[in-house]
Amino acid sequence: MHILIIGAAGMVGRKLAQRLVADETLGGKTVDKLTLVDVVKPEPPAGYSGIVDARESDLSAAGEAKKLVAGRPDVIFHLAAIVSGEAELDFDKGYRINLDGTRYLFDAIRLAHNADGYKPRVVFTSSIAVVGAPLPFPIPDDFHLTPLTSYGTQKAICELLLSDYTRRGFFDGIGIRLPTICIRPGKPNKAASGFFSNILREPLVGQEAVLPVSEDVRHWHTSPRSAVGFLIHGATMDLDKVGPRRNLSMPGLSATVGEQIEALRRVAGDKAVALIRREPDEMIMKMVAGWAPGFEAKRARELGFTAETSFDEIIRVHIEDELGGKLP
Amino acid sequence: MHILIIGAAGMVGRKLAQRLVADETLGGKTVDKLTLVDVVKPEPPAGYSGIVDARESDLSAAGEAKKLVAGRPDVIFHLAAIVSGEAELDFDKGYRINLDGTRYLFDAIRLAHNADGYKPRVVFTSSIAVVGAPLPFPIPDDFHLTPLTSYGTQKAICELLLSDYTRRGFFDGIGIRLPTICIRPGKPNKAASGFFSNILREPLVGQEAVLPVSEDVRHWHTSPRSAVGFLIHGATMDLDKVGPRRNLSMPGLSATVGEQIEALRRVAGDKAVALIRREPDEMIMKMVAGWAPGFEAKRARELGFTAETSFDEIIRVHIEDELGGKLP
Fold first, then answer.
1. Of residues B48, B95, B118, B151, which has the active-site annotation?
2. Which CDD domains does this one have (chains A, B) (predicted)?
3. Residue B86 has what pLDDT?
4. pLDDT exceeds cutoff 80 at B189
5. Is A163 close to B147, i.e. CB distance below 8 A?
6. Å from B119 to nearest chain A CA?
7. What's the pLDDT score for residue A188?
8. What's phi and psi for B315, nearest 5 deg?
């Protein structure tokens, strides 16, 4: 089978490609071709014996979506987006990439469907940013869409398009509302949500990290490994069971920053915890106050999506997947 | 003040213009100019002493939105849309008119805002079609968006855009989720929802009407007069009280078809009721089963929106506004 990953150079995209290569199959079928696309040319995954077509492509540019669909991939993972902060700073770019790019893709599939009956599975990554404060806790599956950012608005609109294009039979779509991914591998970055990962990842390797909010802040997390698991499950599950409501809040772990820190203490000791420097940041505290504390995710759990149930587990996943299985 | 009505040739648009002419003012300010726009040139309302600019314009055509915004109207009522049935039959046309047309308008306002600080009030008519079965009764204000038609999807997307453009400060928007309008004046039409009006309007003037569903079907109604009242209130109310969640399910009357018929009996007697011919239509019954039985509309009521509280009242409004105050 032929799999297309749009946004393949990003953290989740790279891990998804690695997982597909390691599994060799998806839903029982051999993965014999991977098309990997991003605005920078993705690295082909190591150890893959099938065909890799790695391409630089901007989905929002004229004609690009048609080219991606021309190869008639069986499964399309659409992960490409510019992030929340950038979509807020650059209004035009956010709508162009996150909304128009997605609509071009969906329409290219629709036209291919109308031409020859093509009907791929489309797995789309949405976000918990489709909701914004005030929020109940836990947020039920039937809670309305209340984004407070342009990024969240764009994701919510793409969710609605995905449901409608699916209902019309142009493709078989599923929208995966990802929790905040923790622990994000790599270097600390300036994303407002970065500290949730920084305060664990850096101390685990003996580095200092800054905590800009109070310990009672509650948020909604899942590991990179679980995020990839959601995408694989979305690509292989029986979608007839999902019905017309195709966008699902994924399961995750609702935890306070204090609970994150206690998990770090259990896994890596007081010495690691001592590396967290408290440096309150009013702007970040204000932003975080509007974020989701946690979802019920009842439908997704019933449909077989699974995630970590403790922060100890999230930290161990990081140690296994990023640190070779042991602390330095 | 200068008021623009897009979709001014439609039933609600015509009644809104008539109301503005009768009132002479909006929110305490004299209405000295009306720009009336539709895909067919709207009739100027009778008895108006101000300036009327009535134009044929397709909002989804290049450059049209910019022209409409060039006159810098203080209030924009955006009522234009192709209806549910047509949007379902013609996918491209539905998205072009109902989604792209609205986005062109919003973007033309945004560019004008960026150019000179222009910031009009925008009153947008959304629809109860943003939800679809299975539905609770009554549907709470925080129920999620679950459209089961392309029309409902397009309205839901425009709601999200309206909230985001308002949040960014480009205009001050309010989305009005209209109930099904009953009694629609005019001739019976082929809309699947037409019978809700037909079974009252036709018997009131001694004509036969067809009822295609059973008497226990429950739906959500408001009169044309109340619909215009919602738009006027949306154009004049203090929007700071609304906060960032700018799309409101309007109040209405939840009633079964049987309750409609009993109201007809009270107002016009058994002879009128005898003119309703039962002719079950499986297709219409199936469609109607997915429609909204009624909304809580708590926020809208608290914000001062009001509607009829009995079907007798809805029928009397029709007699006053369409039949000169008395039955023939």
1. B151
2. Gne_like_SDR_e
3. 92
4. no
5. yes
6. 17
7. 80
8. -70, -40
Q: CA-CA distance, B287 to B296, in Å (whole number)?
A: 22
The residues spanned by each domain of chain A are: 2-179+223-249
B233 Cα to chain A: minimum distance (Å):
23
Q: How many CB pairs under 8 A join A and B?
A: 54
* Nearest Cβ partner for A160 among B141, B156, B245: B156
Residues of chain A numbered 1-60 and touching chain B (CB < 8 Å): none
| First-to-last C-alpha distance (Å) of chain A | 40
Average pLDDT over residues A139-145: 97
Q: Which residue of B has its CA nearest to A111?
A: B92
pLDDT digits (tens, 9 = 90+) for A148-199: 999 999 999 999 999 999 999 999 999 999 999 999 999 887 778 999 999 9
Contacts of B110 in chain A (CB under 8 A): 91
Percent helix, strand and coil across chain B, each to the nearest 5: 45, 20, 40
Paired residues of A255 in beta bridges: A219
Please write down the HEC assignment for all residues of B53-103.
Answer: EEEECCCCCCCHHHHHHHCCCCEEEECCCCCHHHHHHCHHHHHHHHHHHHH
- The verdict on A160 touching B (C-beta cutoff 8 Å) is yes
Looking at the structure, give the CATH architecture of the domain made up of residues B2-179+223-249.
3-Layer(aba) Sandwich (3.40)
* Ramachandran quadrant class, A309 (left: phi over 0; alpha: psi -120 to 50; beta: rest): alpha
State the complex-level ipTM. Answer: 0.97
Peptide bond before A319: cis, by omega within 30 degrees of 0? no
B38 phi, psi to nearest 5 deg? -165, 175
On whether any CB of chain B is under 8 Å from the CB of A145, the answer is yes
Predicted pLDDT of residue A187: 87
Residue A146 in contact with partner chain B when CB distance is under 8 A: yes
**Any alpha helices (H) in chain A, and if so which ranges?**
11-23, 64-70, 84-89, 91-94, 101-116, 150-167, 195-204, 224-236, 257-273, 282-288, 298-302, 311-322
Query: B153: which 2 tokens?
Result: 């999807």
Phi-psi category of residue A184: left, alpha or beta, with phi > 0 → left and psi -120 to 50 → alpha:
beta
